Each structure stands twice: as C-alpha cells, then as structure tokens.
Amino acid sequence: MTTQKPLHAVVFTLSLQGHVIPSIHLAIKLASKGFTITFVNTEVNHRDITKSLCRNTSQNDVVDIFSAAREAGLDIRYRTVSVGFPISFDRKLNNEQFLEGHVHVFPAHVDELVRDLVDSADPPLTCLVADSFFGWQSAIAKKYNLVYVSFWTEPALVFSLFYHLDLLQINGHYASHDNREDTIEYIPGIKAIELKDLVSFLQDTDFSTSMHRLISMTSKEMKSADFILCNTVHELEFEPILAIQEQQPMYAIGPLFPSGLSNSKTLVPTSLKPEFDCTQWLNTKPQGSVLYVSFGSFIPCEKKKIDEIAHGLLLSKINFIWVLRGDAVSYEEPYVLPSGFEDEIKDRALIVTWTNQIDVISHSAIGGFLTHCGWNSTLESIWYGVLMLCFPLKADQLTIRKLLVDDWRIGVNLCDKKPLTRFEVAEKVNVLMSTKLDDKLRKEMIKVRQILKNALAENGSSERNLCQFVSDLKNKIIEKV
Ligand SMILES: O=c1ccn([C@@H]2O[C@H](COP(=O)(O)OP(=O)(O)O[C@H]3O[C@H](CO)[C@@H](O)[C@H](O)[C@H]3O)[C@@H](O)[C@H]2O)c(=O)[nH]1
C-alpha cells in the first residue's frame, strides 16, 4: 500500500536559542523533501522572535515566522504552545521550577495540541518530531499512534554518553560520589574519554536535582524513539554513530544551516534577541584581523573569568567583536566592564549584546573565534573555516572542546593552566590570530571543513541519510496503519 498524501510531521522545539535554530532548519529541510510540517514554537520563543523582529504586536498576534517559506512553496504551518507557565515567568531565575513544569505540566499542553491535529489536520498527522530533551515524547506518540522521531542538536558523541548512562552508572562514573580520574573505555563507539571531558552534568556530585531527573528521562526516551536524527556529519563521528545504529536507526543529517548559506537572511527568522549589525564596522577592517568573541545564548560565566578575558583582549592589541550579553555573568545582575575598558578599545573593538553570528563569522575580516564551544557555533565556525580558541563553560561544551582540540585538532585550548589569567588570554589570542596558512591547525581545518561541505553536497552523506530517513519513515508509517 502506498500513501498518496504527503507525510505530515509536527515538530516541537525547546525554549532555547541553540535548539530553536537547528529545529527550524530541520523543519525547512523536511518540508523541502515534501513533508507537510506543523512547527510548534513555545509561546516564549514566539514572543522573543516577534520582539526581536521589532514588530509592533501584542502577545496574542501570531506573526507566522514561516510565511516567507510558504510563499516559497513549502507546506509549513505554525502553532504556538504554552510550556505551562505565564509568559512573564522568568525561566532563568527559576530553573528548578521550570524543569519540573517542563516534565509535568508542559505535556498536557502538548497533548491538547497534538489531539487537535490528529482530529483535524489534513493531511493526517503521522509523525512526531521532538527535541530529545523532553520527557513525554514516546507517551504522546504512542497515545496517538504516531511515529516518534527524536531530534538531537548536539554531537553524536554526546548522544552516546546520554544513551549509555546506565553503563556510566554501573561503572561508577555517573551518579557516584567518587571523583575518579579514570579514562572511560567501555562505551561502544567511544575509544576513550576522560572524566573531565564528559558533559558537565554527568560530572555533578549532586544528582538529586530536576536536571538529573530530566537527564535520566532523556536517556530512556532516546531508547524508545523509532528514529533518531542528529545534527552532525557521519564522517566526523562515524564511530559513535555506527555503535548506536546497532541498537536503533540514527541518521546524521547535519550541519543544519539556513538554506542557501550564502544569504544568511534566511527565509525564516530564528533569533530570540534583536541583532546588532556588525558588517559595516567589519568592512573597515583588514582581512583576517578581527577576533570574534561569543559564549552562546544563555550560560553565564564566572565574573572573574570574564574580567580576565576583558583584560586579556586589551593586552592582545587585536581587533575584536565581543557579544557580551547583559546576563554574561549572572541572571540577576548585568555585567559591568572594567573601568576605562571601552575608551581603551574604542578604535579596535565593537561590543554588542547580540548579532547575526553567521554574518559576522562569514566576513573576510574575521580571523578567529573565541568560543564557548556550543555545537551550533562550532559547526558554523568550521563551515567558514574560522579557527577556534576554546573556552567551554558547561554542558556538552566540555565534550565538544575534546572533539575540537584533541580529536580533530582544529581548536586551541584557552584554559590550559588554571586559573585563567589575562596573560594566557592575550598569548593564546595572539597565537590563534597569527596562524599561517601552512600551519597544522589551518591544514586540519581545511580538511574538516571539506568534510562538512561534502556532507551537504548533492549525494553527500547528510543528503543521502536524509533521503534514507524519509524512505524508512514512509515504510514505518505503512507498517503502522
Ligand atoms: O550574537 C549571537 C550569538 C549567537 N548566535 C547564534 O546562536 C546560536 C548559539 O548556539 P550554540 O553555539 O550552540 O550555543 P548555545 O546557545 O549555548 O547552545 C545550547 O545548545 C547547543 C546545542 O544543543 C549546545 O551545544 C550548547 O552547549 C547549549 O548551551 C548559534 O547558532 C549562533 O549563530 C547569534 O545568532 N548571535
């Protein structure tokens, strides 16, 4: 039996910038393969995207972020869902409460929306695609007889760590009070990883928190997915991918970027904050002379370290753009730069609260990226061949640093010697910015960049994997009806 109607998938994303961006690009990719997509943004994401576009709307006005995509011929519908808190609820200041609601209250709102789609959508809803970090996907998919696709926005290596949480636990490397210094060599598809390179949450000694309940649920949810989509590239991470594929169908379909990257003003707005345009300033700077500094969208850094980075940038004498969020060091109090800093750097630096990162790192004036090693920033930097000075803060960033510096050798560690000093910052920035074309680091970057480009080329691995996924999904749906 074949189905004539297009596949209809509902896509759910988290209220986090680093997850919304790849989820939107995934939705566009699936729609471009003929899917009907209902993309569900949280109300908070929707409000922030709308605000960042400076539209004059009230909370109830639904500005459909996919309208241009639809005009371009894609069947993407747009809905919003409450996460169970009033829109004014500050997630950053009440994280425990938020995570509890995420697991216990949010699912009721999701259920209501999915039920409505199941009852009325045309073409009929057949598939639920959701970020892997929810706790309710498999139950809702099962209830409505939908195929469940888990979407992983981080490297496959990190997926594998969460997937094998039970192994880590049995061996005393998770949820254990021993601070063992061993190298972990028993996870299928991971040759060796040191404890310090595990995702920060897996190194916690207090695992009674909501975050740890969520981690445990995530690990279980992954195993009940019909399919797993991962924003990575097979050739870069084939060992963990092949090991997972022995258990479940996993497809590396990354990097998930705006369609037609040459024009970063994509069909669909993805930014949760207003963007400051840096391109005019960059146009005045010589090629490769500017360091881009950004630590992602929400994790704060210790004030002492940010102060050392500020002084180190001063000492380095390098041009730089620094995305310094108001909450760079704390959600309670805005960060204040050392006195006199802005006067001293005014001819060679630009400090902004948010920008269009792709516009910045694709600019020829950029010569390096001081990054927190978020996975999106990492993929974007590789795509544009920008060398990275790695300063992971938390979460998977510690593991991504290992990939960049130890495995692929395309990044430099910022903090080798603890504590971080301004002198180390200045020294490493200068080393990074003076890297020559024939240096090993740059040669390795060219190779890794080519792997990413090949993956997205016609008949490249990510393209093939996506087509394979669509075909396997169709078969699964036929099996289900
Ligand atoms: O001024 C800025 C700064 C960032 N970005 C974009 O924001 C995204 C940031 O994503 P990422 O680099 O992954 O960092 P986080 O926001 O910290 O992302 C979270 O989500 C990622 C994917 O799951 C994880 O790898 C990170 O550790 C986690 O903190 C990227 O696409 C950037 O291009 C901008 O557009 N403008």
From TrEMBL:
Keywords linked to the UniProt accession: Transferase
UniProt GO MF annotations: quercetin 3-O-glucosyltransferase activity; quercetin 7-O-glucosyltransferase activity
Organism of derivation: Cannabis sativa (Hemp)
Taxonomic lineage: Eukaryota, Viridiplantae, Streptophyta, Embryophyta, Tracheophyta
InterPro entries attached to this UniProt entry: UDP_glucos_trans (IPR002213)
Gene3D superfamilies per UniProt: Glycogen Phosphorylase B
Family statement drawn from the similarity comment of this UniProt entry: Belongs to the UDP-glycosyltransferase family.
Name of this protein: Glycosyltransferase
